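Subject: Pre-mRNA-splicing factor 38 structure
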Amino acid sequence: MDEDYSASSSAGGGKKAGKQHNTLPFWGNESSMNLNALILANIQSSSYFKVHLFKLKTYHEVVDEIYYQVKHMEPWERGSRKTSGQTGMCGGVRGVGAGGIVSTAYCLLYKLYTLRLTRKQINGLLNHTDSAYIRALGFMYLRYTQPPGDLYDWYEDYLQDEEEIDVKAGGGQVSQLS
Protein backbone atom coordinates (compact mmCIF):
# COMPACT_ATOMS: atom_id res chain seq x y z
CA MET A 1 0.00 0.00 0.00
CA ASP A 2 1.47 3.38 -0.91
CA GLU A 3 2.01 6.12 1.66
CA ASP A 4 -0.56 8.53 0.21
CA TYR A 5 -3.28 5.92 0.49
CA SER A 6 -2.18 4.85 3.98
CA ALA A 7 -2.44 8.40 5.24
CA SER A 8 -5.83 8.96 3.65
CA SER A 9 -7.36 5.64 4.62
CA SER A 10 -6.81 6.04 8.33
CA ALA A 11 -8.93 8.16 10.63
CA GLY A 12 -12.44 6.96 9.97
CA GLY A 13 -12.29 5.59 6.46
CA GLY A 14 -10.27 8.20 4.72
CA LYS A 15 -12.35 11.28 5.49
CA LYS A 16 -9.28 13.43 4.88
CA ALA A 17 -10.03 16.43 2.70
CA GLY A 18 -8.29 17.32 -0.52
CA LYS A 19 -8.83 16.41 -4.12
CA GLN A 20 -5.97 13.89 -4.32
CA HIS A 21 -7.46 12.07 -1.33
CA ASN A 22 -10.99 11.98 -2.75
CA THR A 23 -10.25 9.12 -5.16
CA LEU A 24 -10.93 5.66 -3.77
CA PRO A 25 -8.56 2.83 -4.58
CA PHE A 26 -10.01 -0.48 -5.74
CA TRP A 27 -9.19 -3.83 -4.22
CA GLY A 28 -9.74 -7.12 -6.04
CA ASN A 29 -11.17 -7.97 -9.44
CA GLU A 30 -12.10 -4.74 -11.21
CA SER A 31 -14.04 -6.48 -13.97
CA SER A 32 -16.41 -8.23 -11.54
CA MET A 33 -16.41 -5.80 -8.58
CA ASN A 34 -15.68 -8.96 -6.55
CA LEU A 35 -19.30 -10.04 -7.02
CA ASN A 36 -20.25 -13.68 -7.40
CA ALA A 37 -20.20 -14.56 -11.12
CA LEU A 38 -23.86 -15.64 -11.17
CA ILE A 39 -25.03 -12.45 -9.46
CA LEU A 40 -22.94 -10.31 -11.82
CA ALA A 41 -24.25 -12.14 -14.91
CA ASN A 42 -27.83 -11.66 -13.73
CA ILE A 43 -27.24 -7.96 -13.05
CA GLN A 44 -25.69 -7.38 -16.47
CA SER A 45 -28.49 -9.21 -18.27
CA SER A 46 -31.25 -7.63 -16.19
CA SER A 47 -33.60 -5.36 -18.14
CA TYR A 48 -33.82 -3.13 -15.04
CA PHE A 49 -30.05 -2.59 -15.19
CA LYS A 50 -29.70 -2.42 -18.99
CA VAL A 51 -32.69 -0.19 -19.68
CA HIS A 52 -33.72 1.75 -16.59
CA LEU A 53 -30.43 2.17 -14.71
CA PHE A 54 -28.57 2.87 -17.93
CA LYS A 55 -30.48 6.16 -18.14
CA LEU A 56 -29.25 7.28 -14.70
CA LYS A 57 -26.00 9.19 -15.16
CA THR A 58 -25.37 10.92 -11.84
CA TYR A 59 -24.72 9.92 -8.25
CA HIS A 60 -27.80 11.89 -7.10
CA GLU A 61 -30.09 10.14 -9.59
CA VAL A 62 -28.89 6.75 -8.33
CA VAL A 63 -29.34 7.76 -4.68
CA ASP A 64 -32.92 8.82 -5.47
CA GLU A 65 -33.52 5.47 -7.16
CA ILE A 66 -32.23 3.65 -4.06
CA TYR A 67 -34.57 5.70 -1.87
CA TYR A 68 -37.66 4.85 -3.92
CA GLN A 69 -36.92 1.28 -5.05
CA VAL A 70 -34.83 -0.70 -2.53
CA LYS A 71 -36.92 -2.66 -0.02
CA HIS A 72 -34.43 -5.36 1.10
CA MET A 73 -30.73 -6.20 0.84
CA GLU A 74 -30.83 -9.80 -0.38
CA PRO A 75 -29.21 -10.55 -3.77
CA TRP A 76 -32.30 -12.29 -5.20
CA GLU A 77 -35.95 -11.34 -5.33
CA ARG A 78 -38.25 -13.53 -3.26
CA GLY A 79 -39.37 -16.74 -4.92
CA SER A 80 -37.25 -16.22 -8.03
CA ARG A 81 -34.62 -18.89 -7.31
CA LYS A 82 -35.03 -22.64 -7.63
CA THR A 83 -33.03 -24.28 -4.84
CA SER A 84 -34.95 -27.49 -4.20
CA GLY A 85 -32.82 -30.57 -4.59
CA GLN A 86 -29.57 -28.66 -4.37
CA THR A 87 -27.09 -29.41 -1.62
CA GLY A 88 -23.95 -27.92 -0.21
CA MET A 89 -22.97 -24.49 -1.40
CA CYS A 90 -25.50 -24.75 -4.21
CA GLY A 91 -28.38 -25.24 -1.76
CA GLY A 92 -29.22 -21.59 -1.50
CA VAL A 93 -27.31 -21.20 1.74
CA ARG A 94 -24.77 -18.83 0.23
CA GLY A 95 -26.75 -17.52 -2.72
CA VAL A 96 -24.66 -19.13 -5.43
CA GLY A 97 -26.75 -22.00 -6.77
CA ALA A 98 -29.30 -21.43 -9.48
CA GLY A 99 -29.92 -17.87 -10.52
CA GLY A 100 -33.14 -15.98 -10.26
CA ILE A 101 -34.23 -12.40 -10.56
CA VAL A 102 -31.43 -10.29 -9.17
CA SER A 103 -32.56 -7.72 -6.63
CA THR A 104 -32.92 -4.02 -7.16
CA ALA A 105 -30.37 -3.48 -4.36
CA TYR A 106 -27.66 -5.45 -6.14
CA CYS A 107 -28.39 -3.82 -9.50
CA LEU A 108 -28.03 -0.42 -7.85
CA LEU A 109 -24.89 -1.51 -6.03
CA TYR A 110 -23.31 -2.37 -9.38
CA LYS A 111 -24.60 0.88 -10.88
CA LEU A 112 -22.84 2.78 -8.09
CA TYR A 113 -19.68 0.85 -9.01
CA THR A 114 -19.95 1.98 -12.64
CA LEU A 115 -19.93 5.58 -11.38
CA ARG A 116 -16.59 5.00 -9.56
CA LEU A 117 -17.61 6.76 -6.37
CA THR A 118 -15.35 9.18 -4.55
CA ARG A 119 -14.68 9.29 -0.81
CA LYS A 120 -17.02 12.28 -0.54
CA GLN A 121 -19.81 10.35 -2.27
CA ILE A 122 -19.26 7.27 -0.07
CA ASN A 123 -19.41 9.45 3.03
CA GLY A 124 -22.62 10.94 1.62
CA LEU A 125 -24.12 7.44 1.40
CA LEU A 126 -22.95 6.40 4.87
CA ASN A 127 -24.31 9.53 6.51
CA HIS A 128 -27.56 9.77 4.55
CA THR A 129 -30.50 10.41 6.86
CA ASP A 130 -33.42 9.63 4.52
CA SER A 131 -33.03 5.87 4.11
CA ALA A 132 -31.21 3.05 5.87
CA TYR A 133 -31.01 1.30 2.47
CA ILE A 134 -28.94 4.15 1.02
CA ARG A 135 -26.59 3.76 3.95
CA ALA A 136 -26.55 -0.05 3.67
CA LEU A 137 -25.59 0.15 -0.01
CA GLY A 138 -22.75 2.47 0.97
CA PHE A 139 -21.46 -0.17 3.38
CA MET A 140 -21.89 -2.91 0.78
CA TYR A 141 -20.02 -0.83 -1.80
CA LEU A 142 -17.11 -0.55 0.62
CA ARG A 143 -17.25 -4.27 1.41
CA TYR A 144 -16.98 -5.23 -2.25
CA THR A 145 -14.43 -2.63 -3.38
CA GLN A 146 -12.06 -1.72 -0.57
CA PRO A 147 -9.07 -3.55 0.92
CA PRO A 148 -10.25 -5.73 3.83
CA GLY A 149 -7.72 -4.11 6.17
CA ASP A 150 -9.39 -0.72 5.64
CA LEU A 151 -12.98 -1.76 6.35
CA TYR A 152 -12.83 -1.29 10.10
CA ASP A 153 -11.70 2.32 9.64
CA TRP A 154 -14.74 2.94 7.45
CA TYR A 155 -17.20 1.02 9.67
CA GLU A 156 -15.96 1.97 13.15
CA ASP A 157 -18.10 5.09 13.63
CA TYR A 158 -21.26 3.16 12.69
CA LEU A 159 -20.91 -0.03 14.74
CA GLN A 160 -23.43 1.12 17.35
CA ASP A 161 -26.02 2.20 14.76
CA GLU A 162 -29.48 1.03 15.81
CA GLU A 163 -31.39 1.86 12.63
CA GLU A 164 -33.19 -1.19 11.24
CA ILE A 165 -33.42 -2.53 7.69
CA ASP A 166 -35.02 -5.60 6.13
CA VAL A 167 -32.29 -7.89 4.87
CA LYS A 168 -34.59 -10.60 3.49
CA ALA A 169 -36.55 -10.46 0.26
CA GLY A 170 -40.25 -10.47 1.01
CA GLY A 171 -39.74 -9.06 4.47
CA GLY A 172 -39.61 -10.61 7.84
CA GLN A 173 -35.93 -10.43 8.73
CA VAL A 174 -35.36 -7.01 10.19
CA SER A 175 -31.83 -6.36 11.37
CA GLN A 176 -29.91 -3.43 12.73
CA LEU A 177 -27.72 -1.66 10.19
CA SER A 178 -24.55 -2.26 12.19
